[in-house]
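hi! just following up on the protien thing from before. the input was this:
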Amino acid sequence: MSELYTATAAVTPCRDHRLVHAQAITTGITDRSFYNSLITFYSKSNLLSEALRVFHHHIPSPNVVSWTALISACAGTPLAFLHFISMLRHSTLPNQRTFASLFKTCASLPSLSFGIQLHSLSLKLSLSAQPFVGSALVNFYSKCRLPLEAYKVFDEITQRDEVCFAAMIVGLAGNSRPVDALSVFGAMKACNVGSTLYSMSGALRAASELAALEQCRIIHGHAVSTGFDSNVIVATGLVDGYGKAGLVSDARRIFDELLPRLNAVGWNAMMSGYAQQGDHRTVVELFNLMEAQGLVPDEYSFLAILTSMYNACLVNEANWWLTRMKVDYGLEPGLEHYTCLVGALGRAGQLDDAERIAMTMPFEPDAAVWRVLLSCCAMHGAADMAWAMGRHLMELDQQDDSAYVIVANVLATNGRWDEVAEVRKLMKDRMVKKEGGRSWIEVRGKVHVFLAGDRRHERSHEIYTKLEQLMEKIEELGYSPVWQEMSHEVEESVKKETLWYHSEKLAVAFGLVSDAAPPGKALRIVKNLRICKDCHEAFKYISCVVEREIIVRDVNRYHRFLIGTCTCGDCW
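and the predicted 3d structure came back as:
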């Protein structure tokens, strides 16, 4: 009877299961497997009360399948835990599906403590290393922001299938561990385990975060060979990946190919790619085309527009779009939208107006708002205001090294060395560690990371020789070091040497000695912090010397250096 009911329900999914239930009662059916299936179908139809009635009135001796059906019907709510405890009290042990449903509930609530107890029980029952339970556990720990615990579970799974790999890749990518996510994706392919929609989108998310163009291309090729490139989710990930890697032309090609099928998420990804470049005209053009296609812009659509205005330092336009978002579309701007307006005002030198917006907007300013204001103060050399913004940032997080570093740099630029010493003492007293500037460049699929003054690379001698040659050539062209980037009172020769060996300059030199890109193609560098003024100035000249484009993605935006200019217009 259960098989007959399942087959009938599959053929006629819209059938009212209560009719089948009524027939079962009138004909006296007592088959437990039939009622187990009925619970599942009721829960899928969002008829939880009916599912509970079936369990309590028609199954006098529930087995593990009955209990699992009931627990799954209550997934995502604390009721699932209560039914699980009742199950244990009735001396019924869980199976793999029971654990999978419970771990999903623990992840969604979330409930870390209950999940850890479940993990312990799964170990005792020798089920945690099984693929079905293991992948659910990986997802649970990942959602609880415990990627290392997730990886431990993943490492113990005996026979990893595509679901296990997908859970681990998505978990690592979602916890800002993109290098590890790509490593697991590579291991999956090496083991000849098939890709899924989730593993592909997770790998693309990781490549996007790293702005790793070659990795994005590798995943794109894999998507084409497996047929996933036509999937809307994967295609959107490719648009986002190429856009974040600075190759908006490739992103646009994929976008145009799947244009009729893309939803608002895909359009937002394309607009975001242009926004990072400050190409506000194209972003607005896409916004209008999106509406013409019958799609409704959402908060992320407006965030892309406001980001483009922020990066282009267009104050009036940013203000106009924020107003239009509220008045014409009935959307309430979020904190990120106001942050863009604050940043646009600050970059344009309207620091008092920027602070006024921060203080009067309908949100409590967060660290991002104060950091934007602080960076704008640094850009305009407003030392007193920088101190004030820095204090706001320190109040939110005393361990935020960027607050101390930026304030110290602004004070040093203004020659206020006593106050620089005061800031450094604060850092020491509070045991704040400065995050080192890191830059990386991708060469033939491998990411090479550099620190300032880094000599650990196996080709460091070639790198430093090349960099010294470049610096000598650009000095001949008129380059002058930007001494204000130095926050220490030291001799000029020491300052010069320190500025020469910043991480982004080392990355460029390595890119040239390693032929990272064919002649005529751009060198692509990623920086974890804001590119300094000296490197920004140097790259303008280096682009002339090497006669090629240099693209730098820093924490704020993209910079495209070519023939002595940068697309940011010296506004970043």
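The longest strand covers residues 438-443.
Residues 221 and 229 are 9 Å apart (CA to CA).
cheers
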